[in-house]
């Protein structure tokens, strides 16, 4: 694996291009993610956000260079999964599998469950019987059970109700500061992005913007990205 | 088939391997693929008979080549296993039917009736133990990959290699079970116990334990019944497995309460 050139960075991406069939989804993308920072990735549907995360973990072929810090351990929380409802796999099965593959301990899995508010009873259930919110908590717990230094979150609160989203976002925010995690977060919620992101990467069909939220999340940039004016609510205290 | 202690041990070993492999095949949605893939054995058996070598050797070689071909097509074209297997193995069945001589064709399709030699028994028991052991060693990687290949990849699993390993072990399981069920019915021996276990179990350990038990009961019960009524074992093995599935319809999900010893084993 090629490692980062600047030791302060957890990730460096250089001229990354990804083609799916005949279509170029990402073209010559370059950015860096400093250690312990949060990069929010935003953009309209089909802009290549999930493709980017998959390329970063090597699940998709790409041109260009992806350089991770030498000590990187990645935790990945995928977008909504298409799994059979009657799979005889419990949350505990999934946590045990992650722990065994990542070489961590069951104690790490228990801590991860506690951090995201996943009860022992819910974790013993078959995954098909979990609610959308419980399942998302389980996926975050699985990612954390591998004791990652970098978290890749692909819309981690999608399909979760409003109070659930809020508590999951709070838990993730707490984690980032307590464990000094580097985070790459795909989100459509610009208020959340504004609140948590150190930097923002905007993707939109061949174009991209990268920078601080205050510089990138401007009405003109957003209109250019989404093709229509985008309104979002930012709390006054966050502007200060 | 005469039913001796060595045959009992072989039946149990083959059954346990088929049960364990079947669990992951079913969870990976390879139910139809299992049936179609077993047809790949037929041209191998046909060529082995013509070349006067052991039919199972020909079947195993053809199955392994088939597994490699499926894996290559899957990774290169991105097509689903079901699609690739459906095309490749239907053609294999047609070719096998043309090559295999008439009498041997029936045995190749539905399983043999002769007693197992010492070498066949030894290879069968050792091969089954190896297959079950290797699948159980990959159990956690397989679980992560079937829920999300990306989660597995992020945890450091080479998913493409894992898929190839599983396909090869799957092909070997088919080769090991051919003497019971033949190319047409072996898919059922792998799939029916796993589907039965999936219906009843609540977690992975429960599914593995139940599938191994149902599969072992099917191979030993079918072989025993065949020796009593002097019929071919293959169809009877599958009938016993089918009866277990029907019986499972009357049981609630119960896999969460598996014995502690089973949790350690799996």
Helices and strands in order:
The complex is a heterodimer of chains A (240) and B (266).
Chain A: E1 9-20, E2 23-34, E3 38-42, H1 49-56, E4 63-68, E5 74-77, H2 91-102, H3 106-116, H4 120-123, H5 132-145, E6 150-154, H6 162-179, E7 182-186, H7 190-196, E8 199-204, E9 207-211, H8 213-216, H9 219-226, H10 236-239
Chain B: H1 5-27, H2 31-38, H3 41-51, H4 55-77, H5 81-99, H6 102-110, H7 118-137, H8 139-147, H9 149-154, H10 159-200, H11 204-229, H12 233-248, H13 260-265
What structural keywords apply?
A: 240 residues; alpha/beta; three-stranded antiparallel sheet; 25% strand; disordered C terminus; B: 266 residues; mainly alpha; ABC transporter involved in vitamin B12 uptake, BtuC; 13 helices
Detailed description of the structure:
The complex is a heterodimer of chains A (240) and B (266). By secondary structure, chain A is of the alpha/beta class. Helices cover 38% and strands 25% of the residues of chain A. Chain A has ten helices and nine strands. In chain A, strand 1 and strand 2 form a beta hairpin. In chain A, helix 2 packs parallel to helix 5. The longest helix of chain A is centred in the C-terminal third of the chain and has 18 residues. The C terminus of chain A is likely disordered. Chain B has a single domain, classed as ABC transporter involved in vitamin B12 uptake, BtuC (Orthogonal Bundle), CATH 1.10.3470. Chain B is globular, with a radius of gyration of 18 Å. The two termini of chain B are 32 Å apart. About 2% of the residues of chain B have low confidence. Classes of the chains: A alpha/beta (240), B mainly alpha (266). Chains A and B meet through strand 5, helix 2 and helix 5 of A and helix 8, helix 9, helix 10 and helix 11 of B.
